[in-house]
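Take a specimen:
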Amino acid sequence: MTSHPGTGLRRPLLLVGICAVTFVVYLDTSITPVALPDIVRELGGGGTAAQWILDGYTLAFACLLLAGGLLGDRFGARRVLLTGTVLFTVASLLCAVAPGMGSLVAARALQGVAAAAIVPLAVAALSTHISDAPARARAIGLWGGTAGVALAVGPLLGGVLVTTAGWRALFWINLPVCLVAWWCLRSALHRGRPPRSRGMDVPGQILFVVAGCSLTLVLIEGPHRGWTSLFVLGCGITAAVVIAVFAVWEARTRHPLLSPDLFRIPQVVVACSVNFLGLFGLYGVLFVLTLYFQRDLGLSPLETGLRFLPLFGTLGVASLTAAIVARRLGTRRTMVTGLALICAGLVGLVSVTLDIPPIGYLIALGLLGAGIPLSGGVVAIQAMADAVPTAAMGAASGAMNTFRQFGAVFGVAVAALVSPPAGDAAVTNLPATFLLAAAGAALGGILTAVALRPEGTSAQAEAEPEPIHSETR
């Protein structure tokens, strides 16, 4: 193939490859919950098994997301994207043939490692390979829409596959999609030397992983092992110490993984907080409602997937239209509206366990699904655009997406803590999870309304004399 990158056959191949691998990465965040009871029934694993099936993926994803972009800078987007796609394929195969719960959770974590290599470089590849600005904007919009659609179809597709072919089919279907994506990316991504990159903050990355894993272990294992057990206390002390060391290290190192200077910008704080809170509520709801529907109500995986249609249907539509809404209403008003919808939806979900007609529950899920893309994602990036220097925008976006994934990790862990399983029943206190997440969304709405400037009063970040970074002190 001799055509220039971004022209001829390479552009459609690039779009197919990027969208295909993006689809499976985000599909595997929403397709798995409906299969949790079947997986635990077959593989066992104890009271925390269902949580680790979800958090094994999202925790690895969250911890390594910041490093993924830096690896692309150092080794080139082509090499890292192709390697990430192969790794995701192998990890999916290992999930499909996992003989026990431990091996499944480990394979899910490997999927998360691969996702962390893929996601930050997807948009970068589109930006560098498509020079025409309108075409590039359409391609990035298609990428974002693909992620939203993957989230939307996950529960229903998962229900169909589990009902007709068993839970292992959830992972077998990744293989042909990944192989197509790999071939397209290999054909479309041009070779070449990567641009000169800044140094890798290896100590910071190690500290970040240890802190994230230790804190997650405390939240998940604490209720089951006992909060005073040596293991849980050790993890808690480790998390506290490592977080403190990480903060000091990032303030002193020349090339920080997560620059403290970014968090002096109110728009970055808002974007990170809102994305954390949005995914916190979404994944908490997915976890507890899946168990409630299948264990308490006796629904099949397919019936469970159908119950989630209002949530992911509106989420998919809102993902495709969020940028348009933000252009009309402004980012501040759009984000506050989205958080208000999330809060209303979560409060409305209390009706699940009350003698209220199902229409109330369906509306509540729809409000939650519509609010998440309007408050985070592309809209939050737009909110940062006028305040963050261009040179630091990639770091700010990486930080936002990291907080977004940690919202999913802690959403599952805290949901199980607040609404714990009781024997064969799914949960003992569903409303507690919904109301806690609603309080978080309300707090995010207040923070957004107070901290974000109304449109027309930007900080003129481009006038700042130098990009954000931390030099050795």
Q: What stands out?
A: Confidence is low (pLDDT under 50) at residues 1-7, 457-473.
